[in-house]
User: Fold this.
Amino acid sequence: MPMTMQDIINPGSTRHVPDFPDAPSGWTPDVARKQAERMGIELGAEHWEVIRVIQGAYRDESAPPLRRIHDALEARFSEQGGMRHLYEIFAGGPVTRGCILAGVKPPAGAVDESFGSTA
Assistant:
């Protein structure tokens, strides 16, 4: 059987997730749901789109991971308010929490404890 792009991106995976073509090996929507439950997040359509964007950004290696993810999310959600909007639906940070839900390691520097601080 010939190798597909999914096999290259997700080596060793025996299960393809059709709605998430860039998902890492072993990741499923159920994994994300369980993580979201632990985080106190009720997953909606925008959360799932963030997961797709982050998984796709990890496939692209044209820039450092944090910049790639930030730029991809900003572009995809620009009409809704970009990253500012995503911080409203991902308390604790859309990059960090989104990466955890997407099954990928958050890039160094992704945690911004001061966002939204009034002090």
Q: What stands out?
A: DSSP finds six helices and no strands in the chain.
